[in-house]
Design goal:
Oligomer: heterodimer
Largest interface: A-B, 20 and 29 residues
Largest sheet of chain A: 5 strands, parallel
Number of strands of chain A: 5
Strand content of chain B: 15-25%
Shape of chain B: elongated
Distance between the termini of chain A: 43 Å
Distance between the termini of chain B: 97 Å
Number of helices of chain A: 9
Shape of chain A: elongated
Helix content of chain A: 40-55%
Number of helices of chain B: 14
Structural class of chain B: alpha+beta
Radius of gyration of chain B: 43 Å
Number of strands of chain B: 19
Largest sheet of chain B: 7 strands, antiparallel
Order of helices and strands of chain A: EHEHEHEHEHHHHH
Strand order of the largest sheet of chain A: 2-1-3-4-5
Chain lengths: 217, 580
């Protein structure tokens, strides 16, 4: 079996979180037969202690656990920079918890005992989505890097341009000469390697910057 | 008016005959059977009339039924012979009756001698043609007179000498004694008839045993209830027959009680037991017995008692119990529903592991080279998880299944342990810590495992619910067991929750009483029903340290626990109702 990672070298990792030792071991063995690397955790707390990476991976998560529950871990993971796709695998599923989990972005919600095909299909979908999201994140990081050379003043001007203001309006807002604003605009467009305001707007959008965030970056 | 001319010889003869008559009658009436009394009195009246030359002799009695009348129960007239009873109104002979009731003998030689206040009496006597009269009140033991003996002449007047009056008074006393005996006899017979009617109405069978005379008596209903053959076969002792048909499991208890009654250690028996009726099969009997007579040493010389067939009542009780069992089952399932989190998890966990391992094994088998060392742990894990799932099912099955009450000797500690396993998952999920303090070497109890498990389960679930609003560090349940000084075993489930509202405390065991939004209000009520059926006690209290305690006390099994008939001791239903 060969999971469709974009890169051939690192095998994707399935991170298993379940408090039941015997189940954890069984599912670890099974997942390994699928050719995945496996890491296991006995609790949500233990999982949160390990440093997150952006390697191809997904989480196979139990719902009911003493301490932090699966849903608690899901919302904690949503806060981090590189959120991992999650497949819930639970002993007891209710409609309300599954809806909650899916709404919070879970890839799937399986109940134990789950057949291998279902499980692997869910893992595959989660990994595929993870790969896609990772690609987007990589591209975004790359695009954002282009904004790095901008000076604070240039960012200010950029934010105003993105919100559709003319040079004259910007000069008025920032209390500077219109000529100075024109100079900043020319400089920042050169640094960002764009020819037009339209191109500039697209780039900012692709980098995931709404106008207000430019200055914070 | 002057009396008849006297003839000394005739007088002497008369007196002799009269003395003979008195002696004869006195001896005759002493042991006269009640049935011959009336005839003999009439005969005596005839002979008295003949000997004394009287015309009418009447024996008057006052009856409770008609207090305004005196009835001539025995009436003899020389002209007409014995007469059927007639009666006279008290108010028609006011003076005479007053004298009689006051115990005064009245002698009237001539109606002219009657005092003026006896005008009415005189009038009536005239109408009846009475010329002379002697009236002697009848009474016994110094009691109020119950009647009178009236001696009359209608043809001629006569004198009543003191001596004659004394003799006649003696005769009257003979009559009075015999009549009083008959009246007492009648009263006894009447109360016997009433007793019989009462026992019949109440469906009671009556028996007596006389230990001194070595005799026994049973009535027809007793015979019917116990199926004692109707014609007393040679040598058939009904009491022995009865004892031989008492259910073997209950016999010893009954014999012990009888022995105690016989020895005078107790003065009554009240027992319920099963009886194997020779024709009708198993019956339930309620038996009451008392000492009728004691010996100087205090033991029973004679006992009497009643039996009642309470089979229909017992069947109704059994039906009620069956319904309760049904209800207990529903409540149990609903309690288990509340534990759904742990149960589904408990079972799906090993099943999920088994499936994963099996699929791993399949994968390994499909490989070109079989990796035995990889295979072994997989198979071992499958076996272990299979056992684990089986254990979960074993624990749950009892509580889920319908179930007849079954008594066995139980260790309360192991019962608590089982339930603890069952709820451990829920406890963990709800962040509740549970500690147990089980007294080692606890005496065993006699009870139904499943039902008592349910009580423990209900109490723990109840405690878990009580802790829902508490901060995590204050969620604690403690289950403890200990023997008590009065041969009981006590279990307590205490929690660190908010306790029970004081005005709610008396109601917590009532059916359908609940403080939980989705509660049925059956858990504690069922718990009490179960504990009651085990002759135990369950109660709730608030702890001074906060939180609530539910305590259960159950009798320790041990000596004196033979076949205790009661709802729990009922045999399985199938043995009571014939198979279709």
């Amino acid at each position: 079996m060969n999971p469709p990672g974009s890169l051939p070298s690192p095998r994707p990792t399935v991170l298993i979180v379940d408090d039941d030792l015997s189940f954890r071991e069984a599912i670890e063995r099974l997942v390994r037969t699928g050719g995945y690397a496996v890491q296991t955790f006995a609790s949500a707390e233990e999982f949160l202690q390990c440093t997150p990476t952006d390697a191809p991976a997904c989480v196979l998560l139990d719902l009911d656990m003493p301490g932090l529950s699966g849903l608690d871990l899901q919302s904690a993971l949503a806060q981090v920079e590189n959120p991992l796709p999650i497949v819930f695998l639970t002993g007891k599923g209710s409609i309300s918890t599954s809806v909650q989990a899916m709404r919070a972005g879970a890839e799937d919600f399986l109940t134990k005992p789950a057949r291998k095909q279902l499980l692997f299909a869910a893992i595959e979908r989660a990994l595929a989505r993870g790969a896609q999201e990772r690609e987007q994140r990589a591209r975004r990081r790359e695009l954002r890097a282009r904004f790095d050379p901008l000076t604070p003043r240039e960012r200010e001007v950029l934010a105003h341009i993105l919100s559709g203001q003319t040079n004259k309006q910007i000069a008025g807002d920032l209390g500077a000469a219109e000529r100075t604003i024109k100079m900043h605009r020319a400089n920042l467009m050169a640094k960002l390697q764009v020819q037009s305001v339209a191109e500039l707007t697209l780039l900012a959008h692709q980098a995931g910057f709404p106008a207000s965030q430019i200055t914070d970056h | 008016m002057s009396p008849e001319k006297t003839n000394p010889r005739r007088e002497l003869e008369e007196r002799l005959r009269f003395e003979t008559l008195i002696a004869d009658l006195s001896s005759k009436f002493v042991n006269l059977p009640a049935g011959e009394l009336d005839r003999e009195i009439m005969d005596a009246e005839r002979r008295i009339c003949e000997v004394l030359g009287l015309d009418i002799l009447a024996l008057w009695q006052k009856s409770d039924e008609a207090p305004d009348f005196f009835t001539a129960t025995h009436y003899y007239s020389v002209q007409e012979g014995p007469q059927p009873p007639g009666r006279v109104k008290v108010e028609d002979l006011p003076w005479l009756m007053q004298q009689v009731l006051a115990g005064q003998i009245v002698t009237i030689s001539s109606l002219e001698d009657l005092p003026p206040e006896a005008a009415r009496d005189r009038e009536l006597c005239r109408q009846l043609g009475v010329k002379s009269n002697l009236t002697i009140p009848l009474s016994v033991g110094g009691q109020r007179p119950f009647g009178a003996l009236g001696l009359n002449t209608t043809l001629a007047q006569r004198d009543w000498t003191d001596e004659l009056v004394k003799r006649l008074q003696l005769l009257a006393q003979v009559f009075a004694n015999a009549l009083a005996r008959k009246r007492a006899d009648q009263a006894v017979r009447q109360s016997e008839a009433r007793l019989a009617a009462g026992t019949e109405l109440a469906g009671l069978g009556y028996y007596e045993i006389d230990y001194a005379k070595r005799t026994s008596f049973i009535d027809d209903r007793f015979r019917e209830i116990c199926g004692v053959p109707p014609d007393r076969r040679q040598g058939l002792d009904p009491v022995q027959f009865w004892m031989e048909h008492v259910h073997p499991s209950d016999l010893q208890l009954l014999l012990d009680e009888r022995q105690k009654l016989h020895d005078g250690r107790i003065d009554r028996i009240s027992a319920e037991y099963r009886y194997l009726h020779p024709d009708l099969g198993e019956k339930w009997i309620h038996h009451l017995a008392r000492i009728a007579e004691r010996s100087a040493a205090g033991g029973a010389v004679r006992i009497f008692g009643v039996l009642r067939d309470i089979t229909p009542q017992k069947q109704a009780e059994a039906e009620l119990l069956r319904q309760r069992t049904e209800l207990a089952h529903i409540a149990r399932v609903s309690t288990m529903g509340e534990l759904a989190a742990s149960l589904a998890h408990e079972l799906n966990q090993p099943l999920g592991a088994i499936l994963a391992n099996a699929e791993t094994a399949e994968f390994l088998l499909e490989q070109d080279t079989l990796a035995l060392e990889e295979m072994r742990p997989v198979v071992t894990a499958i076996r272990k998880d299979g056992e684990r799932a089986g254990e979960v099912i074993r624990r749950m099955r009892g509580l889920f299944g319908k179930h007849e009450l079954k008594l066995e000797l139980l260790d309360l500690n192991s019962l608590v342990h089982d339930v603890r396993q069952l709820v451990s998952r829920d406890l963990a999920l709800r962040g509740i810590s549970l500690s147990v303090a089980l007294a080692p070497g606890l005496p065993e109890i006699s009870g139904d495992r499943t039902h008592l498990q349910q009580v423990v389960l209900n109490l723990i679930v109840n405690a878990m619910d009580a802790l829902a609003g508490q901060p995590r560090e204050k969620r604690h349940i403690r289950v403890s067991t200990c023997p008590t000084t009065d041969c009981q075993v006590e279990m307590a489930v205490t929690d660190s929750g908010p306790g029970i509202e004081p005005d709610t405390l008396p109601r917590v065991f009532q059916p359908f009483y609940t403080t939980k939004p989705d509660g049925m209000g059956m858990g504690l009520s069922i718990a009490r029903t179960i504990i009651d059926a085990h002759c135990g006690r369950i109660w709730a209290e608030n702890l001074t340290t906060g939180g609530a305690a539910f305590r259960v006390a159950l009798p320790a099994s041990g000596k004196g626990q033979v076949a205790r008939p009661g709802p729990v001791g009922l045999p399985p239903r199938s043995t009571r109702s014939p198979a279709p």
